[in-house]
Amino acid sequence: MDSPVPRTRAIAPTLKKPPARPRSKAVAPLSANSATTTQSPTEETTRRPRGRPRKTAEELDDGNRRRKLMDGAAKLFRTQGFAATSTRDIAAAAGMHSGSPFYHFESKSALLYAVMSEGMTMATQSQQQALNALPATATPREQLHTLIRHHFEILLGPRSSFIPVMLYEWRSLTPAQRKGIARIKDSYEATWMPVLEALAKQGALQAEPGVARLFIFGALNWAVQWFSPKKGKSLDALTDEALALFIRS
């Protein structure tokens, strides 16, 4: 007999499972509050700072030169007169080249207007500061004393040239320039009216408030003609005597 052939088991084919898909992590949706943006160092350094940018050294120097021109011009206009003062004189007084004034001002007339307008604006601001420094209980007499003392300071103090220039060179301004100066001047003098009206109600004022204001400014402004800091009274003593002249004790 032939030897029996050994039986072999049928092997079922092995099916390979497909590779599992990688699970993706759930990503929460970004909201307006949770969203963040990443800026490159270049973007951070080029971001403009908030607020008014600081003036550069060149801008500060430019402002100082303009101030020197105005101070020098005011003194020359006061001593020589507007017509007799040349732009060359003004530049020399400021230590600059002869053409320098035209870099800051388009004409000598524009420089004259700047001397007056900026001087009166500064005086208006410092006048309000002087009143604000008084206690809330200050009497009308004390307020008038402060106003007179401040006015003497801008008339006769170290930076007082613009007032005489305004008084004596008014006709050198153009009609439009006069209107501009008049607006600032009216604002300065209007601050005196409530004080004078309060004194009038107390019976302490020597005249009707509107007329008194004209007399007071006329008398105070004339001091630029005769006052000398090297001789005579101090500004404090001058203020006391002016106050006694205008109101009853």
Question: How would you briefly describe this protein structure?
Answer:
The chain has 249 residues and is an all-alpha fold. The protein has twelve helices and no strands.
Ends: how far apart? 161 Å
Percent strand equals under 5%
What is the tally of beta strands? 0
Radius of gyration based on Cα positions: 40 Å
**What is the share of helical residues?**
55-70%
Give me the oligomer status. single chain
Shape: elongated
Largest sheet descriptor:
none
Low-confidence stretches: 1-17, 24-45
Q: Round the mean pLDDT to the nearest integer and report it.
A: 80
Class by alpha and beta content: mainly alpha
Helix-strand sequence: HHHHHHHHHHHH
Number of alpha- plus pi-helical segments: 12
Can you characterise this structure?
With 249 residues, the chain is mostly helical. Helices cover 57% and strands 0% of the residues. The protein contains twelve helices and no strands. It has helices at 41-46, 57-79, 87-93, 101-104, 108-132, 140-156, 162-168, 175-190, 193-201, 209-221, 223-226, 235-246. Helix 2 packs across helix 3 (87-93), helix 5 runs parallel beside helix 8 (175-190) and helix 9 crosses helix 10. The N and C termini lie far apart (161 Å). The model is unreliable at 1-17 and 24-45 (pLDDT under 50).
Name a few traits of the molecule.
mainly alpha, 12 helices, elongated, disordered N terminus
Helix-strand layout with pairing:
Layout: H1 41-46, H2 57-79, H3 87-93, H4 101-104, H5 108-132, H6 140-156, H7 162-168, H8 175-190, H9 193-201, H10 209-221, H11 223-226, H12 235-246
Helix pairs in contact: 2-3, 2-5, 2-7, 5-6, 5-7, 5-8, 6-9, 6-12, 9-10
